């Protein structure tokens, strides 16, 4: 493995009974790369993403993070390696404030004093100052997504896996989320599964396109998004065309 490759998936296959959701997908990511996984509904991108995070154990193939073979390791074991995962499953404690939620997440990795500093930094970065004392349970969807992201970032992961971070956000919130994710790639390697092509266009440096469980194209975002085969698989699909 090249020194600067921090994530490598080798011939990953994931079968569910008779369904082959991922059919031999390989991918390499460099440190601080920001990679979007896209593709039509049912293409296999979420399943592949879950193999990277440890939520699923691939039927075949391997996942290598920072030189360590991790296929088969549990989510919390992968998390302990400095990998953070934002799923669409709510993780906040509704009865605690935004500040308290972030503080508890930061404490997992920092001393009390450092956790305080980390929370202040995150509140500024995520634009949450006006809501710091609000209960998480009282937040609107977009604010909540920012706090969910804050919980993920509180441990200062080197690899961040984001499942549809723009899902359900307003246009302004999508723009803010795009800025935050781009900034994040200055200090971490980031993999994003996303349907919102405006968001993908705004953030992606490199893109991997799934189609029928296989990788149809990958590489430079501009090149891949203008690839005729990629445009063809999106035509008529509900999530828009990568034009
Ligand atoms: N737990 C499961 N059991 C059986 N089949 C599954 C399971 N998870 C996914 N699949 C199937 O695997 C295929 C790929 O699904 P996957 O969710 O990975 O696609 P996707 O590209 O993420 O789609 P979407 O954009 O709709 O989320 C689909 O045919 C899906 O029905």
From TrEMBL:
One of its GO terms (molecular function) is ATP binding. Residues 7-237 form the ABC transporter domain. One of its GO terms (cellular component) is plasma membrane. Keywords: ATP-binding, Cell membrane, Membrane, Nucleotide-binding, Transport. PANTHER family: CONSERVED COMPONENT OF ABC TRANSPORTER FOR NATURAL AMINO ACIDS-RELATED. This is ABC transporter related.
